[in-house]
Fold these 2 entries.
Entry 1:
Amino acid sequence: MKKYFAEFVGTFILVLFGCGTAVIAGDKVGILGIAFAFGLAQIAAIYGIGPVSGGHVNPAVSFGVWIAGRMSAKDMIGYWVGQFVGAILAAGLLSVIASGAAGYSIAANGLGQDGWGPGYQGGYGILSAILFEFVATLIFVIVVLGSTQKSAPAGFAGLAIGVTLLVIHIFGIHITGVSVNPARSLGPALLVGGQALKHVWLFLVFPSLGGIAAGLLFRTKALEAK
């Protein structure tokens, strides 16, 4: 249970500070600031809870780790529960904090939810959203699995993973808002509802498929160090 609670805490950190920066300070810090918030929050979460659970803080990562043969199905499900609950509670706390500003409305201002199409960010279509989320998650989970394998330099995985997430956000915020993490997407979408909830399926499915593909590359030894 300690591992599952650690994943709850780590995902809570990521969603609160990543989405929180987008909602509270996005108009001041811009895309770069939001990207740094997600990347640095990821680094903090990994080093904070990594010694307990490995610091997945992402169901797609746990899926990839399981496919690669590095964890049991039981633990993967326990991680998922911790991650999704952490994301939902972080979004709930963010909604309470954000509502303290005059004129704030969840319907109008949101909670940093992901999406695509007209009226969202750059207005990119569903194909762009699918391709970005699949490929970005594939790359992200490859970095996670590669930097945590036994032959990788010790102590640097958290930094490599956080920097990768930062770069993914710089590239992709204007496309989908960036998920690469089903829990990060579901938490805000559940509270915002409407279009966010209608779109959330994409951010549950394609990051998961990206995680599976990355896991297979390591399960088949295509990227596993000899």
Entry 2:
Amino acid sequence: MRVIGGEFRRRVLKSVPGLDTRPTPDRLRESLFNVLAPRIEGTTFLDLYAGTGAVGIEALSRGAARVIFIEKNRAALQAIRENLRTLGIAARADVRQGSPAQLVGLFDADIVFLDPPYALESEYKATLGALGDKPAPLVIAQHPPRLKLEERYGALLRARALRQGDNVLSFYAPA
């Protein structure tokens, strides 16, 4: 796994063995950040179910001011911290262990990205529901095409869906 673009382009990231995390494919991250390019600079980015931290690190590489990583898995948290340390950007990040659905309301962010492991489909409803109660300006959920997310979660309304291979990015904004 590597950083696709920006300041840390081509830098290799440590990953976590096993199936407890599901890394966002390089091509999908590239598509995501092509969409986000006009609005990523200077933002606070919240990476939920962060895994190795690749999406949040990509945000930092492309100009986000700060990233908050939330992850349950201890091995993944170690990988995130090591990746941040290796790149020299730990000061621009906040790494938290716990349930994203429970912790999401504690943070203010401009952009929120979530991609729970596909085996935990109930996490989408819980986390998007919590985000709908206190919406960020932009919320993006990565999910399999077979999982049909709601058009609306509280104050969040789906504005766009981008399908690429075995993944969909659903973009939500306050209604």
